[in-house]
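Trying the structure run again after the queue cleared.
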Amino acid sequence: RFTANEIPIALITDGQLKTRYFNTIVDPIYDSSGNVTGQLATTIEVTEQVLSRKKIEESEAVLRRTKEQLELSINTGRIGIWHWSVPNDKLTWSGEQYDIYGIAPENFAGNQAAFQSFILPEDMERLNADPQFFTRQNTDLEYSFRIRRADGEIRWISARSRMFYNADGVLEYMVGTNVDITEQKKVEENLRYTATLTQNIADAIIGTDLDYKVTIWNKGAEELYGYKTEEVVGKRTDTFMSTRFPNNDRPNDWQTALHTVGFWRGEVVQKRKDGTDVYILSSVAPVKNERGETVA
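Done. Tokens:
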């Protein structure tokens, strides 16, 4: 017996050349003496079965690639994924989620109470202040909170979640992600601190870009020169404020000092908004980025 499965054959169907698939079985025909006198071939078309199987294989391949890409993005971006089955209060975490919270899988109870025990009480109170926040249908929730990891370290978490309901409108399960944004929060806090310090310090602080356009003009500068911040931001300093060097300093000396010693300090005479002169002990220093390039 000879068998061949899924043989592709090009046939003209409905005026178009299409590939069809066939399974073929060939059996010998014997006479009374046992000699082969012929063959019996049976052919069955299996085109639909083959095409259906190919579609399933293609879908599985896409799912595998998607899973690999998702795992890569999770591992690279430190994204924790969780799934909460509401009826039985079963909470499932990904490996990255355990890493973010600093706990081993065998030490996690796997329920909502165990998860909430990580959240700082004041943040849990804030999240619970809106009783309908976690029960809104067809809404992707975005929120942030602080956790105390298993090792005691405080971390900031950015969370997103989605709820899924059954036909009766009862919450069945939730899925979501957690991202550790502690470093981002530290940067934001430092920026707020710097901005507050700059605005409230008594001395005049002025920042410009490389074209000498004003980017920072604090309250001290407003009081000293008489210009409000909105009047000068974005303007070149030489368009509204003249500068003289009373100690025989040449105008370019300060630029030379910036390149050689990294700062310049000296006396200048500048004009206020009302046209009067003001004598200033000025300090100028460049602002550099992480590559050491002067950016302001």
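Helices lie at 47-77, 95-101, 112-116, 121-128, 182-200, 219-225, 229-232, 253-260. Worth checking whether this holds up in the mutant runs.
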